[in-house]
Specification:
The protein is of the alpha+beta class. About 25% of the residues lie in helices and about 30% in strands. It has 3 helices and 8 strands, in the order H-H-H-E-E-E-E-E-E-E-E. The strands form 2 sheets. Strands 4-1-7-8 form a 4-stranded mixed β-sheet, with no helix packed on it. Strands 3-2-5-6 form a 4-stranded antiparallel β-sheet, with no helix packed on it. A hairpin with a 5-residue loop joins strand 5 and strand 6.
Amino acid sequence: MKKNIFLVLTVLAVFLSACGGQPVEPTLSPEQVQGTAISAAFTMVAETQAAVPTNTPLPPTETPSPTPLPTFTPPPSPTPDFALLPTATVAAASTGGEDNCLHPLNVAEAGPQSNVRFENDSGGTQITLSLNLATNLHGQCGTLVYTLGKNEKLVVSLPKGEYFAYAWIVYKNGDTSTATGFFVNKVGDNHLFPVLIKEHVIVSK
């Protein structure tokens, strides 16, 4: 009886082992393999970055800038009322002093002179004529002022040199105009020559 049971158990074991076969290994599709590899790669990258210490930027340091120096603002100088000053003072004040040629001319020290005739050919009833001598051979320069009436001719003795002439012309109806020009009282010339004051220009003949 024991032999029969042993035999049955032996046959059963052989049968079971024959029927069981080899274990089947699960297979993955190529898409699953690719997805797994990509997932693993992302996991490795994430773990690597998590392991790297982060660099905390230092707070910016303030660069010291030079403190600007206080600027000096000169107090405003009082403006003279030129209408109340005499002509010589007006010329000096408007040009900053006696170091320029817009001051009264020292005729006595300006050297030789000769006659020049100024003619009011402007049609104006009154002319205020300003003659400005540039520095001449005697180191003198300055301004002379004359007035002429309607159609007036005025002869004056002027030191030799180059002149800039400016005329303020007043007309009968109250209108005004200005005329300017240059002329030269030459050293070698002793004859009288005329200078015409027209409506907008001053010319020598």
